[in-house]
Amino acid sequence: MHALKLPMVSRIVWILLLMCIFLPGTCSLSFAEKKAEEKLIIYTVNYPLKYFAERIAGREAQVEFPAPPGMDPAFWMPDAGTIAGYQGADLILLNGAAYAKWIPRVTLPQFRQVNTSAGFKDHYIKIDEAVTHSHGLGGEHSHSGTAFTTWIDFSLAARQAFTIMDALSRKRPDLRDTFLGNYQVLEKELLALDEEIKKMVSKNPDRPLVASHPVYQYFARRYGLHIESVMWEPDEVPTEKQWAELRYGLEGHPAKWMIWEGEPAAASVERLKSMGVGSIVFDPCGNTPENGDFMSVMRKNVENLKPAFQ
Amino acid sequence: MKQRTGTVQGLRIALLILCILVSVKAQAHDIWIEKEGEVYVLLYGHTGVSHEGVVRIEYSPDNVLQVECFDETGNKFDAEVNQVYPVRICAECAVLCVLTSSGYWTKTPFGTKNLPRNEAISPLSSWLSYESVKRIDAWTEKLSVPLTGDLELTPLRNPLELSRGKKVRLLVTLNGEPLSSVPVSYEGKTRGQTDEQGRINIRLRHGGMQLIQTSYTTPADSEKADEIIHTATLVFEIASEK
User: 20 to 30 Å CA-CA from A235: which of A153, A266, B182, B242?
Assistant: First the structure.
């Protein structure tokens, strides 16, 4: 019985092998084709880069940004499993400008990392005001560093998006036109926001502003804003000492509006109001927003800013 | 929204606590001089002796105000200084003294600015910062006296022949005058303060590079700053442990 069946099996195998040789595609896809069919796996270090990558890659990539909600991705430290995810990605999109403090502490494949702000690294903003701290010897030192909220200068955001488009095109040259087309739509939207803010600020360019946190450096530079920052948390009511310091600060920098990263506590808003200072939310959107997406959050931010320049 | 806000607050508080813990442990930045062959390199950051890991922080070469190289007789001679970061000094010095300054600093309600008091918005307090560093690579009795007018730590006996567990006897001076009741730190921790003659003993707790630091504040008497903070570091190497 077996002796009769074996020649038949081997004949079928031979026919299949010949089909594979002479009719490529009938058996399986070549390695390159298989690669091309698979979605690119992209990991990012913040939400804006995820949003840009998704807009540009469309259905051609699976974009992951694994930081838990509510965490500031600049200071987040992923666990070992998450780092393994980054290590296995086709592309790792970095913000640069000393963002994501965990990056230098782990080993990621060098050739798959893309610093999306490398094109303007000469224009990073150095913070030489930074936080001072006392030490055992009674003196004080200043920790200087690099400002990292690059994407709220929308012209820089567009450059970061271009770098993503370029990196995707290198990975999948066959989809370059698709990526370029998607990028151009995104760029147009980002530059429209850029124009809108410039136009808005031009009505009252010298207006002093106070920010609840020092995260608006690139935003201030691009749009010529006069922003001084305190170190307040939106959901915490400041201490009496902080109020007193602000009152004193406003004597030299008479701001009528405070920009908050998130919705401020009602008590803070009321007290500021009593000092003649209004509250505005401008969410840098470093992490995934609860509602909407990057573009809708930024459009809302721009709307929120309008009263400050009227 | 409330739940998320609570999470954010919790995470931020945790981060703040972590930062406080790190800053307490890490304390101040170090300034030190390493020798690479025949060249001295001025470095800033954390040496790894008193902190976890070596961290080099870029500084402006313009911060270097003075470089003084001394031979074994205590005579000063010229050294070739390469004024790019990190500053390199090419000379064979028994003692090398470098004076740096990051300039004026003013604490304001809007953070601490690298500005003099009269240029800052709503100044709270201000100071002019001087940091000096002295490295010893050879020894004679003539080097047991202060060599500069800056805040200076001077070993009164040859520190290079000491070993782990031994004490180095030091003199702390400013403008050549002994300073009493000045705190002196080693491995990032304050180990005591100088006596009436400006002297203190410090026990060396490890082999290799030694960093001993002190700081002293004087009034500035200027519209630019309330006070001058002088910080001095003494660097020398002893035999490493086997």
Answer: A153
